[in-house]
Batch of 3 targets.
Target 1
Amino acid sequence: MKTIEDFNFENKKALIRVDFNVPLDGDFTVTDTNRITAAKPTIIKVLEDGGSAVLMSHLGRPKGTANPDFSLAHIAKTVSEVIGVQVKFIADCVGEVAEKAVADLQAGEVLLLENLRFHAEETTGDSGFAAQLAKLGDIYVNDAFGTAHRAHASTTVVAQYFDENKCFGYLLAKEIEAIEKVMRTGEKPVLAILGGAKVSSKITIIENILDKVDHLIIGGGMTYTFVKAKGGQVGDSICEDDKMALALEILKQAEAKGVQVHIPVDVLAADDFSNDANTQIVDSDKIPEGWQGLDAGPKTLANFKTVILESKTILWNGPVGVFEMESFAKGTIAVGNYIDEATQNGAFSLVGGGDSVAAVKQFGFQDKVSYVSTGGGAMLESLEGKTLPGIAAIIGE
Ligand code: AMP
């Protein structure tokens, strides 16, 4: 894997794809600088080597038009503050103005290009547009994990114009290493905790992960499709009847592969999908009509705790209950605490994909796990076993 460490940027211009798709408030002020901070080490490395950095990113979905609401000019000041260098901004990302600005760029300087998605050719992966972008640097660095699953001009196609002169930035390299640990190189026992609402959205991940893990915890809304498939009564719980055969097939495959599957044995059931509903703890296969399971029960959490504390490599994707409502967040918080304890005992823990990061941040677990992925969709596709186009473009697959 070629990373930024393999290059010396002295007198070189690095064309860096970053993910500065940051949230803005009504006054166009950046409300969360995490993504800018995440790209900082890569930019600093280029500058400290004696090179200059040309930053390209998208912001929102302007759909191929130069809509000023989505201008990266809004974030230039914040980028300057976070990076600690006065960043220059140029009002296009290709063409004469951009080429002139790059030609004038001196070692130690940083240039931020205008939103890539002001050009429709970005998302269509147009090679002419990618060739224009390629003129803006000597070495291409991809540090945008959040868009690595897209075959866009700046994330994938542009790489073909750089022969050997392309690599991953620190952030993307860290993401790849974290996935590798879970999928291939991590210390055993390896555990995947898959929660969330539906089996149908996680099925490809489950099938792929069965070859990689020793333990699989199934939680959240997915529980009830499995429980009902095994003959249990799930009351009004969320359940995909058309996925029950698949659920049984997964359990069969897991057994054949020697994977231990842990499904909730008891749940916190409610008489309404509401924070103020009446609740009771019931066995997961005896949920009365009119009641629905919305969080893991105490016996289940005790089982989960044992498995989590025995594991040396842990992947967590998806909450084990309706964590958005306080009454049903306890299970997800407990799982976070067990992972925290396991991590303190030396386990490697990765959280990522879809909504998981939101849950982890809401409860302050981001500093307690080993790694929190920065890419929802990109992480999900990695867990499904796909090679992401942005990664393939650098490693030459
Ligand atoms: P996902 O995006 O698939 O990871 O699903 C996350 C969503 O699953 C969250 O919004 C949770 O509220 C929801 N969820 C978790 N457990 C349940 C449950 N028992 N019933 C309904 N929804 C649930």
Target 2
Amino acid sequence: MTDIKTLKDVMFKAADAAAAIQLEYFETDFEIGRKRDYSDLVTEVDKKCEAKIIEIIHDAFPGHNVLGEEGGDQHKTSDYVWIVDPIDGTVNYAHSVPVFCVSIAVEYKGEVILGIVYSPKTNEKFYAEKGGGAFLNHKQLKVSDIDLLKDSLLVTGFPYGAKDNFDHCIDHFVNFVKLGLPIRRLGSAALDICYLAAGRFEGFWEVNLNAWDVAAGYLILLEAGGKVTNFEGGKYSVYDKQILATNGKTVHSEMIEVLKKAYL
Ligand code: IPD
Ligand code: CA
Ligand code: CA
């Protein structure tokens, strides 16, 4: 096994390099393309960031796989997979909204062991090592102590294609809104989960995310004392298509009850 210190150094180096590219191009005239869904954007900056991240990973670990949103490089035989979202919050980025980040996680034999989510515009670097706690710019993170859903601030996101109510995503939102709860939609799943880890939110749910959106945030939240399951409260994998993440208090089971309503 590669030593964790080296993996961590490379992870930080790759995140710093991507964040520098994001800052360099923010609010400039970069190219914007559309993916299969009309509102699913990809910019030349997403591609530049991912290429730089892969270059840094492969300089240090030529044999490691990279699962990246913009293509990655998964042709190796390795127990290591780097799970990379070069820009999470691309729609924000393309519209000059400063809520975006780079998200990088390291998976070893199917388990996420390291994660970083770096939001350069707010100068916030969230990171965690399995069993070593979660941090925001060197300060240890802990989820909030709010116990009940009625006192909670929630956050969610919508998948591209939400207009067709994919996996009841609109119904879930309506069911939470009907409870009269405050709900935010930042446009970056990785930051949604990190804000939860920092005690800013109590609960987050979303359908149809990909591993690159959640892998780093997942570890950061667990290491901050939070809880992540599927919508039924069962075991969660970063490859699952439903995520319920909370501070682990009573709010978790209360949110499961609300999510159940759409499937009755
Ligand atoms: C998106 C963001 C957004 C979520 C979308 C994701 P992208 O990632 O995380 O918050 O609602 O489902 O696809 O496209 O900005 O990397
Ligand atoms: Ca993403
Ligand atoms: Ca992305």
Target 3
Amino acid sequence: MKKMEKLLLKEFKAGKMMRMMLLGGAVLFVFLTTQVFGTLYNSVQENVRQQAIDSVTNISELNAESIKQTIEERQNLIEALAIQLGDRPHSERQVYLDQMKVYAEIYRFRRLGLLFREDDKLMLYMTNGGTVDATGSYPYEQAWGANPFLSESYFPLEGGTYTVNMFSYPVIKHGPQGEQRIHCVVVGLVPSWQMASRMNVSSIKGDSRTFLMNSSGRAVVRPRLYEDIGYKAMNDFIATEPTIHPRDQRDGYFDYDSQTWYVYYVPLELNDWFLMTCVPERSVFASADIILHRVLVGMGILWIMAAAGMLAISFVMYRSQRMLIRTSFYDELTGIGTGSVLPILLRTMRKAEYDKIYVVIFDVDKFKEFNYIYGEEQGDELLRYIVHATQQALPDEYLFRYLSDYFVILLHADDDDEVRRKMDRLVARFVQDAENGITPPFDISAGIQKPQPGVSLRRTIGDALTARRMVKGLQVQQYAFYDEDVREKRVNDLEMESDFSRALRENEFRVYYQPKYDMSSGHIIGAEALTRWVKQDGTIISPGAFIPCFEATRQIIRLDEAVLEQVCRDMKSMEDEGLPVKPVAVNLSRVHLRHHGILDKIETIIRESGVDPRKLSFEITESALYEDSQRLKKIVDALHDMGCTVDMDDYGVGMSSANALAANRFDMVKLDKSFVDDISDQRMAEVIRSTISLSKALGMEILAEGVEQKSQADTLVDWGCTRAQGFYYSPPVTAEKYRALLRAEKSDDAPNA
Ligand code: C2E
Ligand code: MG
Ligand code: MG
């Protein structure tokens, strides 16, 4: 079932196309959103980067300004000291130094001192009382003439663990002629780390670091805390001869500790110094990252929603497709596939599987009667039961509901014997379940045909149906293969069909009469018209051989009309001969129930023949009751209105029931031969007796058909049935012979008359 459904879904090209379109739409959607978000992403990134760089630039410039101010403050102090000393008339070194000591403490110089050129030496006298020979020391030599001067970091002469920066300003003395000479130089030493910490203005969330360096990229003020990753990075960057050079470039990037750092230089307008600001790139773009992250999350959510939407739509589509398939390819009552799935399944079947397939078609014998007797609900129940039981008995086979009570099985089998085994298993299951009371008893008739190369499925099923007809109604055999016999019968049927018109024209259909008798008096009370096909070579074909065939082709309608015409003619001529004309019964096929012109035609024939309609009766077979009870009632009533009588034929062949008798105003019930055959059976005797009394109670005459023995006749008379028809009295005879019988009756009667 699932397999079949999958196959059908696959066959559903339209659904596939819809899905493809949906997928295409989704791809387009993803493409467009990616495009839009990509553009957005880039512009946000660009924007944020610019903003971040702008803020680094601004902060750097502000820092540079404040550092410059810090430095200038100290420089101004040194300068003020130098000018003060220069203005003094005496130049007592120790006095100066003592005064300067106070400044050193207040302004947090490590040392303040005075530099003197004495002979060839450059001597530094410090406020702590120490004296150092600074001859040839680069910063001191530079400081001697410079006005003012700030040195780069260096290790102080008296030894130290950290570097210092030197501020200096020369003390100028004026000679008597107003000439100027350098008397000494005021020197202030500041620990570099102290300078650096002044500069360490935290910005960019505290991640940025500033450095002072000269134009050749050397650090001129060194911080002490190298453990700080930021300073280490900068220091290492500086140590490796920076590729980003303040002379040529205001900014750039360098890598350190698997991070990228952003460098920005601001010229300090002091010596050739620059303020260098370093920020990890990650910090610069942190805010951008947050925005972009949000954008990404937004996009993700949109995609997920789109995907969910698509999933939902395709799910709904799949469901509706399945619904569609279920309603168009599945039978609502039983839940199995209908006949329309068959060609699809066979078309898509693998060859190896196809080669082993047999087509079995079966139906329930007299299903209409079953419905009539047990009710339609029970009928539906039976169909559901058949599906259930078949699926259990033959679990690996495909089962379809072909039409009303017709089912098709695609049976897998290597040969005919395997098919027989499987069919026997199925039939056994049905029989057993009926015996156990799970279902009322029923029979099936199945026809089997193996699909032949180049033969359409329709033909194959048609052949299987033909084979099925062979066993239809035979309780002893439930299935037949389409074989030589069937084919022969089929050919025969076809021949009969095609021969019908000619045979009718050439009067090959002869009406025989079987008299009906009053058993107690032995007199003829009427006759039944029975058709024989008398071929030109003299062979006589009985109606059992051709009537089912003509019923299938509906040629029976023409035949019955012809029979009625012939009967009317015969009756007329008998009347003309002065014979005592007895009522004649004409059989009406069940096919007439579905043929609407029947009543008018009968009326016309009777009227034109001039026969008294009261002398005509019509036999309608019991099983016709189950076909269309409304229509049947209309026909019975109309025939009564014409003045004819109507008899129920073959009572007891079908699943006769009392309400079948009660439902219609029949004039006579014809007890079927099969009842009469079993008359000696105790239980059957009861059935017959009660049927007789029931018919009488309902105001209907009763006639026993197929009475062959005196004993049967006697028993029937004992039970109150006085009318009979059968070989014991007379077989069907030609019109000639029937006339003779009537004539004999007349002459019998004559003396008494
Ligand atoms: P039916 O109407 O039930 O006719 C009775 C059948 O039982 C006849 O068979 C008759 O020959 C046979 N019969 C009568 N008494 C005995 C007997 O004692 N023993 C045996 N073994 N058989 C007996 P027949 O003539 O072969 O007709 C068969 C059926 O064909 C008829 O059954 C009727 O249903 C149908 N039929 C015959 N002629 C016509 C016709 O012109 N039109 C239609 N629509 N059906 C016809
Ligand atoms: Mg009959
Ligand atoms: Mg009959």
